[in-house]
Amino acid sequence: MPTVLDVAKRAGVAPITVSRVINNSGYISQATRERVEAVVKELGYVPNTLARGLRSKRTKTLALVVTDITNPYFTLMARGVEDAAGASNYTVIYCNSDESEAKEENYANLLAQRQVDGVLLVPSCGNVKTIKFLLSNNINVVALDRRVSGVKIDSVRSDSEDGAYRLVKLLIGLGHKRIVMITGPKDVSTSVDRVAGYRRALIESGLGDNEQVYYGAFVQQSGYEFTQQAMTQSSKPTAIFGANNFIAIGIIKALRDLRINVPGDVSVVAFDDFPESMLVAPFLTFVEQPAYEMGRIATELLLKRISGEFNGGYQKLVLPAEIIERGSAGPNNGD
Amino acid sequence: MPTVLDVAKRAGVAPITVSRVINNSGYISQATRERVEAVVKELGYVPNTLARGLRSKRTKTLALVVTDITNPYFTLMARGVEDAAGASNYTVIYCNSDESEAKEENYANLLAQRQVDGVLLVPSCGNVKTIKFLLSNNINVVALDRRVSGVKIDSVRSDSEDGAYRLVKLLIGLGHKRIVMITGPKDVSTSVDRVAGYRRALIESGLGDNEQVYYGAFVQQSGYEFTQQAMTQSSKPTAIFGANNFIAIGIIKALRDLRINVPGDVSVVAFDDFPESMLVAPFLTFVEQPAYEMGRIATELLLKRISGEFNGGYQKLVLPAEIIERGSAGPNNGD
DNA sequence: ATGAAAGCGCTAACAT
DNA sequence: ATGTTAGCGCTTTCAT
Fold it and tell me: Is-above-0.70 flag for pTM?
């Protein structure tokens, strides 16, 4: 493979001149630029980013660590990250922690070895060990989707508490009094915040005693199993709130298997849905989080930190979420 | 950040000894190993892969370039790639070409700059320019999912022709005679091969004159629009074959909007479905391709090429696909 | 079993 | 507007 030196010799200039042409830095006469560019093309020269990064201490690479890349919610977020990164000629490495702290740590190590310039992290849990490790390696970190405490970093998320509150108020407005919530782990902020919103709505409407929350994981199985449990109790709910899309699918499947009509017998609401391209008949009433925007904004913030363009106090951005009403939530026809 | 030199000094050894410990190469006495490892931990030393790659000409990095990462079919394939790569301590960079040749070329350039050791490529079209470029940069390439010609590389795909043939034979066995096919672009092998299987089944059953193929893209819209066209013709089909999952969703949506019952009035079959975690009521009769296995096998092959463990003739692996029968294909109740 | 020297390809720093 | 020198952090090669 040709190197800068090969190009330089052929073009009759010094290596640094080739470097300047390629990077569009410093002053270069038009004539020299054209000559160098011609040789680059002629030899099929491709700059070596390893050497470049080693010398310049900049790899122009970011990493996005999410907990579940199979969830279209995170796929969309990834798209926002990629678009913002690409606009600044940065590349993104995608990692999937599967909600496992061990995997998260492992990836953090790998990313540090690769000298990424920054990491966008959806923290797998409340533990900030990974974040501290990255920071100690001079890698900028922005927390995405979830809150973290005990560490000074920027964060971008959407308003889970408010979204949950409004969703539950909507149900209450439809006459529902026994609303069960099925959520994710206890140590994940989105899970906890959505419960807080649910609780606030209930209490505000004098239904505080009816609170019933099942903590599980953000997977279909949790939705399915806890729905079965909830529907076999003496006091059955008339509405179920799933804390994410996979849980919602599990809820709806369980109700279908129990031959319970949605929303005739039981209403279902959730956070996040699936893209229309994967859905034949969208009908879930849900909170739509601005996943793409979150990814984009977080990335822009991260890039500004990296470039030093922004070095002010740590930002905690909370974007508003929107309720999309479809058919899965109806009036309470029960008791 | 500490470097090998820092570790070496602290441990009272030469840098190369630290290198040997980290890479588990050469002979190291137990005592030295332990001393070095202790210092590595103490200083929080993280090896710099840029320097390593620059010197060793190996980055232990692969790339997977797919045409549409939002399609769960490719997500599953990516999983197979990641697992196989991880097992050999390789990292994977994911790229999405959006079926665009320009984007594919752009990524190829980026990957060459990053000195990846190998690329798993789902070719966006019949053009082998990208592949030739990668090969000319000494990067091993394995073609995934789709055939390419005019270039000597390994390829791993599943048997589209056979899958399509069996799917259409199934429909014919159910009494269908007017079967419309909606497929992807004309210059993509999976699209073409599935048409070939469809055609063979029709001809074999004396239905060759009934062939009707709509070429579009592997997206929902193609399924939707061509179904509308097909159902407003004088001679309406009693079954529709979508060449992938997104097309199938479009077909089913169009039929629903036209108030045509599936499978009562029209049967629908396709290639690929969506994971159960995203589906409330799976009902598509479809060809399931071994996406995970394809990813895994292709990666193992690529790694063997990279290591030089395998340097025989170029492999063209074609894995069998399986028909999953659900409810979307029923007997022909029409004329 | 360990080390010394050299260099991978590039660009920062400092000339001119 | 262009060039010289040096060195980023690591591992290859060749000793001992």
Answer: yes
